[in-house]
Amino acid sequence: MHFEDQLKQATLIKRYKRFLADIRLPDGEIVTIHCPNTGSMKNCQDPGSKVWYTTSQNAKRKYPNTWQFVEVDSRYKVGINTGLANKLVLEAIETGVIKQLQEYSAIRTEVPYGIQNSRIDILLEAHQGTRSFVEVKNVSLGVEGGLGLFPDATTTRGQKHLRELMEVSESGERAVLVFCIQHEGIERVGPADCIDPEYGRLLRQAINNGVEVIAYGAEFSIDASGIRLCKELQVTL
After folding, report:
1. Largest CA distance in the chain
2. Rounded to whole angstroms, how far apart are CA atoms 152 and 41?
3. Region 142-167: what's the mean pLDDT?
4. Structural domains present in the chain
5. pTM of the model
6. What does pLDDT average to over the chain?
């Protein structure tokens, strides 16, 4: 996918109030931008880091600039906009990148399902009536050795989603969890047991109960103002 606006580079001063960040432009001007990430952004918000942002032409926006990427460890680009994860996975399905999710005739998003009135990120439907329920999780936390971890903070919502996927699988339909890896340095991904041990327990239980878990990594193009999923990564437990 490509952004409507050209990516611009700046330097991070600080992130605060979860949805805001101050950056320093190349000319020295300090600007407040929107931070589209409700998570902890562990290891992705160090002051002095390079950041890339886009600018909206919507005159009604209080903060027209949106933070998109950050450089970590002085070498890896990381996508911090969690709102892109579903779009990236949807695009990767439609372009045939995610090979496990092909041969479906219809795709719908944000479809109500389950006894808890939740919404599945992506619902795939085949002509013969079979369905695949796809939940997407964005991964931006990388640690040593190319390992990516999810989540980066305790997530009761994520735990709930795993329970719902298990219910889907137990009902006889296909349930899939896709880790969308927006981090150049991640080569494999697993549960962050040290951060949310309950999520790790439920993830292993879900796999044992028939939930498929797959991961795909992204490549970044600053010049083309784009990002796309391009390769399957290992899921390690």
Report:
1. 60
2. 7
3. 95
4. 8-79 (2.40.50.580), 82-235 (3.40.1350.60)
5. 0.95
6. 96
